[in-house]
Design a protein that fits this description.
5-stranded mixed sheet; alpha/beta; 6-stranded mixed sheet; 15 strands
């Protein structure tokens, strides 16, 4: 790999950060503008990468090699021949990692996203969705890769005691509707079995003891899911076709009115996503794809699949609020879900007397050209981020 500790970041070359989750160690070797080594290098211990953002993901195709802009602060220097960067100093650095590795799965973290393997660090808990569990099952057998020629950042999960919680696998279920307690139990057992067969060193947390917690989440969200399904079924005919710019304000107000009629909070993620679908032209909204609004015969099942994804983000934010010092990553193969998460820029996760509050600062790309009067009106209707 390569970087520069001074001035603009150079290009970083190499497959992945060295070390592993038992102790993140990253070694960089500087190159010049022609890509040739200069002989200067540095190694950092205790590295925690800052999350990437919406603009870093929008043009990337999952499963193809990805260049990763990396930056971190306050890591300890354990080797260096850079002037002004002595060993044992606390250093910061940034670079672009050029690698033959792809990233089929994305880690959604507090401050954005990272390729799932890059996001691994000490004591992190990985919460894989259903497509990630399927990817693990096809990629590994007993901790060994099934195709050595297929290079992906997910390979960093092999031969590591990764802590994995299959909450979201069981929570979604496999029937395109809220799962019963019996289905949740069966799905939790299945996920644990699949993960253990793929990655024997993985630590399943909390494992089967988390069954009642998953059942509780389903019970607590059942009524709200039904109201949100009704909302999406009503919105689908209005939002299937791209919304002309002259009709944005009309559709925006219709979305909010129908949300009120369905008793769905205006500041819930599903309403925020629907408003983004109104605003992004030419049907290119990741929120529209996330909500499955391109489907011709929109059904309750389509709505459930979309809402299961949004519920995973809601649960993730609740977990961030409940465990502010815990390292958590929702691992997904759904680019639209990752774009929506990165795009809403959720922060300030808090629980106030058992009620979740957060703050959203969406990127302009999710709401291009929204009249300021609509924006101000929407964000002044309720306290920030209450769902």
């Amino acid at each position: 790999m390569a970087t520069s500790s001074e001035g603009p970041p150079r290009q970083a070359r190499g497959p992945v950060p060295a070390g592993g989750i038992g102790g993140r160690l990253v070694r960089f070797e500087q190159t010049d503008d022609a890509g040739q080594p200069t002989g200067r290098s540095a190694s950092f211990a205790g590295v925690q990468f800052a999350g990437l953002q919406y603009a870093d993901l929008i043009d990337h195709t999952l499963g193809t090699p990805i260049n990763v802009p990396l930056k971190w602060t306050d890591a300890r220097v354990v080797e260096s021949n850079f002037e002004g960067l002595p060993v044992e100093a606390v250093g910061s650095a940034k670079a672009t990692l050029e690698s033959p590795y792809s990233s089929r799965t994305i880690g959604l973290v507090r401050d954005g996203w990272l390729p799932s393997g890059v996001a691994l660090q000490d004591d992190i808990i990985v919460l894989p969705d259903r497509c990630t569990v399927s990817e693990l099952a096809g990629r590994f057998r007993g901790g060994k890769k099934t195709d050595e020629g297929d290079k992906d950042f997910l390979d960093l999960f092999a031969d590591q005691p990764v802590r994995i919680n299959p909450l979201f696998f069981a929570l979604e279920g496999n029937l395109r509707r809220n799962p019963s307690p019996e289905v949740i139990e069966q799905q939790l057992d299945h996920a644990c079995s699949v993960i253990s067969a793929a990655l024997p060193l993985a630590q399943l947390v909390p494992g089967r003891s988390g069954l009642q917690g998953v059942i509780g989440i389903v019970n607590d969200t059942d009524a709200g899911m039904a109201r949100k399904q009704a909302l999406l079924v009503r919105l689908a005919p209005l939002l299937r076709a791209p919304v002309a710019s002259r009709r944005v304000e009309q559709r925006w107000n219709e979305v909010l009115a129908i949300a009120d009629e369905c008793d769905v909070p205006r500041r819930s993620l599903v309403v925020l996503a629907a408003l983004s679908a109104v605003c992004v032209p030419n049907g290119k909204s990741p929120a529209k794809r996330l909500l499955k609004l391109n489907e011709a015969d929109y059904s309750l099942e389509h709505a459930y699949n979309a809402l299961a994804d949004l519920r995973s983000l809601e649960v993730l934010m609740h977990l961030f609020a409940m465990f502010p010092k815990e390292k958590l990553m929702l691992c997904t193969g759904d680019k639209d879900l990752a774009l929506f998460w990165a795009g809403i820029r959720a922060s300030a996760h808090l629980l106030d007397d058992g009620r979740f509050e957060g703050r959203f600062s969406p990127v302009e790309a999710l709401f291009p050209g929204v009249p300021s009067v609509l924006w101000r009106s929407y964000f002044s209707t309720e306290a920030p981020g209450k769902t």
